Amino acid sequence: MASNSEAGGSADYETLMSTSDVELLKRAWRNEKAAPEILQYEGALVDRAKEQIELVEETIEDYVENGIDPLVVSLYQMDLDRAQFLLRSYLRIEKFMFHNLNSEEAERRLSEQEKVFATRCADDLAKHFEETVLLKLPENYQSVLKQSLISEVDDMVPQPHLDTFVVCRSKNFVSLNLYEEGESPETVEMERGDLYFIRYKIVKRAIESGQIDLI
Amino acid sequence: MAGQTDPHISLFSPQEVEFMAEDELVEIVPNMNMEQLNFISGDFGRFIPQIPTKVPLWLAVALKRRGKCTFRPPGWMSVDNLTQILEAERESQSTFQALPFSYVEIARLLFDHARDDIPDMYMVRSLVEDIRDVRLHKLETNLGSFQGTSAVKISNVSAMEVNIVRPFVIRALEAFYKHDKPEADVDRDTRSSRQQRETNNEPRRPLRQR
């Protein structure tokens, strides 16, 4: 079980060493919820958290048998409940997110089990649509993926809304490129701890590398 | 929670905001002896009578409810400090005073569970509520004055406040952005006047729903 020392904001190495898995899980949960697309599935983190949770569950059973002060037991139980809540919420978000997404990029990020779930889900959805609606439409419009045979892209699949805005806070001083392609490059600088409403696309890289948190 | 109808605007429920605030450290004074606690989320303790120690808010509340400790109200929660902050909030139309990110949640939990540990509780409570009102009002009026940009900086806004304005601000900023892009060549003046009109339309809807 990791210890939670006061992260004084000095060396990044120290912060890394002292951040508990629960902290990381909380961060992943928060980012995932606030982001408009699925973020990298934190498989290793989820597994570690699961392990720790199971360990504590066993410990609690031991405590109860050995008659340890019920107060202590209930406190450990509360901590356990909080960790479980985070884990469950995180997994649930992942599942919900790809009800709407079916792009290649998302597939790269999902875990194996989720891919299986997703393909099954997509197949069922497709069948459902076909049987109820599509067969009744004129021939050109029968595909689940394309609006009509004329469309070139899969435009019935909602694309992640990358241009939306999110609220974020940076951990350190960060300087970002505001404009893309041909427009005059402007930068926005974020001091540590500033809150920004900003376009998701701009901060996407920084979030992945852990410099910025979504709120 | 995860079952959101509009996937584009993610919202945290108030309970979730409170959940996140509960990891904040507060100071308590235990009145009993207890060994160190080795939680998944960290190690806390040991607990020695009359020796103050820092624990997460959720743990502090749990101990307090069982009569095992008293709270040391955080420094920012004194009547003097809060009065100062309230004055400063009222004076400035556009800046927010520095308050702990989760001040709303911390204050509420303390009022609910630790009334007797806060000196001048009623005074403190009404001060905090006044501060909340002034800040929310400030947020509302400021929202009408955005210029369309790609990034808006707001300093010292707290978690609850962010959560409340988040859906509206996101929609407004998106609208600005959408209208900004194809009109990069248009005269600056025309654009800013169009933005003014945009501002007038957007704020009305979501705010009136309250």
Automatic annotation (TrEMBL), chain A:
This protein's UniProt keywords: DNA replication, Nucleus
Keyword Nucleotide-binding belongs to the record: no
Residues in DNA replication complex GINS protein SLD5 C-terminal domain copies: 160-215
InterPro entries tied to this protein: GINS_bundle-like_dom_sf, GINS_Sld5, SLD5_C, Sld5_GINS_A
Taxonomic superkingdom: Eukaryota
Compartment(s): Nucleus
Main subcellular location of this protein, as a coarse class: nucleus
GO BP annotations listed: DNA-templated DNA replication
This protein's record includes keyword Nucleus: yes
One cellular component term from this protein's GO annotations in UniProt: GINS complex
Family membership noted in the UniProt record: Belongs to the GINS4/SLD5 family.
Function: The GINS complex plays an essential role in the initiation of DNA replication.
Record-given protein name: DNA replication complex GINS protein SLD5
